[in-house]
Amino acid sequence: MLKGLQRPAGKILAGLLLIALPWKGLAQITLPRFFSDHMVLKSDSSTLFWGWCKPGRNVHIKASWLKDTIKTVAAGTARWKINLPTTRPGGPHRITIISEKDTVQINDVMMGEVWLCSGQSNMQWNANNNLPQMREALKGPFSNNIRILNVRNIASPYPWENIYDEWSLCDAQSLRSFSAIGYFFAQKLQDSLQVPVGIINASWGGTCAEVWVPAAAVLSDSMLAEKSRLQPLAPRKPNLPGEAWNAMIHPFVGYTLSGALWYQGENNTVSWDGYAALMERLIQSWRNVWKAKFPFYFAQIAPYNYKNKGIQKGALVREAQNQVSLKVPKTGMVLTSDLVDDINDIHPKQKREVAWRFADLALKEIYQVVRRNVYSPVYKAHKIEKGKVIISFHHMDNQKLVVKGGNKINELYIAGADQKFLPADYKLDGNKLIVFHKNIREPVSVRYAFSDTAITNLYSTNGLPVSLFRLDNWDMPTNN
Question: Which of 29, 363, 405, 478 fits a 20 to 30 Å CA distance from 370?
Fold first, then answer.
């Protein structure tokens, strides 16, 4: 095992004990806790359905929407599994599991869309964190067609087969500690599609991305393993590769998902130069284990004063997120750079707007009920002509560039070969940005919003902000 990644004996013992939990009382049928009343199954598809009972027993599954009973046999490990076909959106349905004289019944099962949201505190933040939008949501009304599953924060050195949590109906009590982004996303999806929506929140404040990736996927790559060592030990969160994945994500493997939402990156500013590769590995590993290339949408981290001197590590993480959005298939990125009121607060309060941007991606790409352009522009290419830099962007179909809040673009700089940046002049030409300065006759680079704290105000006419960019790979100097 790599130096610095040894696992404490106490953690190993706890992990072994909890892995054994599903086999307790082998005379009885045992299911993962999330196969519970009020759960949502992905409609018009199939899902892996499993549990435990006495080895060698026959297991019969009767689903109220299926004509025939499905049968399987528990293996020598006591585990049984089947592929359970689902049906059109709606419900409620019932599932009955029978093995000899033992019977378990799951009631109020809905068919619809199932999304998993994960990451660190900006995904986890909820009404208990005094978010005004979420506290208002607690007043209702609540839809019976939105179901939530809040996964408690537990880490493990080994993969788990179960969790401690069950599905809940939406009410003021269950929503109080639930992800604001997850809830507002589910609410907009349900309103738009008029089908049941299940949302699973498995997020943990202050966590680095490495803990959400299977350990082998990190440690098998020498660069990623080295970067993971930069994560400091902390008393209230895991820091070793795979620890959150094992206890909070792995138990769901095989449970069919519509897609995943991700909001994380603040705790990887320490290892910004490995973040793009790490996120590619995270997305790939999740899809590989599920054997499904489900959509994966992520939020670009918000402007925040990390008090970095010189290298702007927050900006560099956002740049890495740009790269992932353009490189990895079936991903999408939503920006938060225009939704910040206080750059000294790492938790921007406008979570509903982030959730709606996530929902718009899904409604356009997956469900095809939104036809408008729902993408933030991301740098594509540039050319230099007669002392001017002409910049084009991805995702500008039938859109133009606009500046909000005046006639000055925030933090737009230009430099020549001397690498000295000056505030730039600009012209908007439809979907292109033309940048220049009277004292720089031979420009080499342009930077836009490329700092930890830059709040963007350059937009597409679809109402979404342009992402930060730079045209150089110079070391990051300060702009003062």
Answer: 405
Query: Would you place residue 28 in the very low, low, confident or very high pLDDT band (cuts 50, 70, 90)?
Result: confident
Q: Where are the alpha helices (DSSP H) in 75-148?
A: 121-124, 132-137
Rounded Cα distance between 330 and 253, Å, is 19
Q: What is the pLDDT of residues 349-376, one digit of tens each?
A: 999 999 999 999 999 999 999 999 999 9
> 193 pLDDT exceeds 70?
yes
Count Cβ atoms within 10 A of the Cβ of residue 37 and give its class: 0-12 exposed, 13-18 middle, 19 or more buried. middle
Burial 118-147 (b: 16+ CB within 10 A, else e): bbbbbbbbbbebebebbeebeeeebeebbb
Which residues have C-beta within 8 Å of that of residue 443, sequence separation ≥ 6? 384, 387, 388, 389, 414, 415, 416, 435, 436, 437
Pairing outcome for strands 445-448 and 412-415: antiparallel
Q: What angle do the packed helices 313-327 and 275-290 form, to 10 degrees? A: 40
Concatenating the DSSP letter of every residue in 238-286 gives --STTHHIIIIIGGGTTS--SEEEEE--GGGGGGGGGHHHHHHHHHHHH
- Residue at 416: amino acid letter: G
| pLDDT number for residue 406 | 84
Tell me whether residue 160 is exposed, middle or buried, using C-beta atoms within 10 angstroms of its C-beta: 0 to 12, 13 to 18, 19 or more.
buried
Beta-strand ranges (E) seen in 395-472 are 401-403, 412-415, 421-423, 425-429, 432-436, 445-448, 458-460, 469-470
**The overall pTM is greater than 0.70:** yes
Do you know the residue count of the chain? 480
- Packing angle, helices 180-193 and 351-365, rounded to 10: 40
Tell me the CA end-to-end span of the chain in Å, nearest whole number.
45
**Closest Cα partner for 341 from 351, 356, 326, 355?**
351
Which positions ≥6 away from 130 have C-beta within 8 Å? none
362 and 116 Cβ atoms separated by less than 8 Å: no
Q: Where are any strands of DSSP class E within 64-130?
A: 70-73, 79-85, 90-99, 102-119
